[in-house]
Amino acid sequence: MQSEAQINHAVEEYADMVKRVCFYHLKNEADTEDVFQNVFLKYMLHDEPFSSREHEKSWLLRVAINACKDYLKSFFRRSVVSLEVLDEIEDEERESHREVLEAVLSLPVKYKDVIYLHYYEGYTAAEIGKIIGKKENTVYSLLFRGREMLKERLGGEGFDE
Amino acid sequence: MTNRVQDAFSSITADTELKESTKRYLNKKYQENICPRRRKGLRLTVSFACAVLLFVMGAAGYSWVQMPVSYVSIDVNPSIELALNRFDRVVAVTAYNPEGEEIVNGLSLKGKKYTEAIHEVVECDGMRAYLSGSSEVVLTVAAEESREPQLDRGVRRCAGHMGQGCHNACADISVISQAHECGLSFGKYNAYLKLLEYDSSITAEDCKDMSMAQIRELIREYESGSQSDGESTAIPENSRDGNEGSAGKDGNGNDSGNGSGCGNGNGNGNGNGSGYGNGNGNGNYGGTSPCKRRHHHGNDHD
Description:
The complex is a heterodimer.
Chain A (H helix, E strand, L loop, with lengths): L3 H22 L3 H17 L7 H21 L10 H4 L3 H15 L3 H12 L4 H8 L3 H19 L7
Chain B lengths: L1 H9 L5 H19 L1 H31 L3 E6 L3 E6 L5 E6 L2 H8 L8 H10 L1 H4 L8 E6 L5 H15 L3 E6 L3 H8 L3 H13 L5 H5 L3 H17 L6 H8 L4 H4 L10 E3 L11 E3 L6 H18 L1
């Protein structure tokens, strides 16, 4: 089990990251809070030490993604996708980012993961493969198709690798 | 576009409220996770204690049910003792001589009502051989005072069913341990005690090899003897004291009615050499027959 200080530090350090993963998977704030707390609970109960901060970060990402997927799998949570999460973003920000976020949220789950991990967290295809448990080549094709879909939805403006 | 995606995601942050509530939640869980070792230990202790308690109660109940509180002794020549629990069911069967053992081996009496068990013992094939015309079955009951009348009634009924040659008696429950020390069933021991009243030299060892019919016969003789002729009872004492070793030969002299005894020192090999005399004038039959039988049994054992 991690120490109390480690736990508090991890919450401060990775809260935004975990929140984002929850955000693009889940549909409302209540679900997000559930999963969010659950992820850090798993972190707390994790017995083995992390070899590096990078290791810790990718571990948390993997746990967060799996926790979200597990949460969505539980049958009583299977409801239609709502974009309720978007309403919680601050007003002025919402305006500028709504379009992009809506586009990302409307992607199938497997594309959302790679898009987020690649474009926001800056992971390479190989690293993403490790986190989500897929082959590097699979990640490449997911990235490619995901980008295509985003281009289509956002009017195809300058999507770089 | 990369920037647009990045910016869009950057706008999503965990608010302080979420962080704080998560910390509170984790802190609570953290305490629970540190304590549970103690709590788990407590739970384990409690469940263990429950299990032990249950086991002890079960064991106590079982021993309560299985504890013998009264006894019925069946003696012909085979001596069998039935130990009964509070519900008058047989919980243990003990044979006190090889003949009894033979009979007991062929029967399963445990758990049966005592009347049923008595019937079964008396009517089994092994017992039939001992139930000839002159034999006597003695059913002896030993129980606490409160239970004795009821048991006695039941045994009496059994005895009544079996007809002639079946007697019943009651023994003091304190006699049992003494009887078992001597290796006798208490039924036989009870009879031995009665015999001892008339003949202080008789030992439990002697009775061991005698059948109940023989013992009772002797008692009857003493009883009738003491009633009819006070003097003659004293005579056998003399004769026995005088010639222990040759008492067997003197058996012939019973005809004379002088109360010579019959010895049994040779027969069973234990060499106690005590003899039984019959003081009444015409008691030749009673005097000789125990000896003969006695010898017979003695050989069997050897």
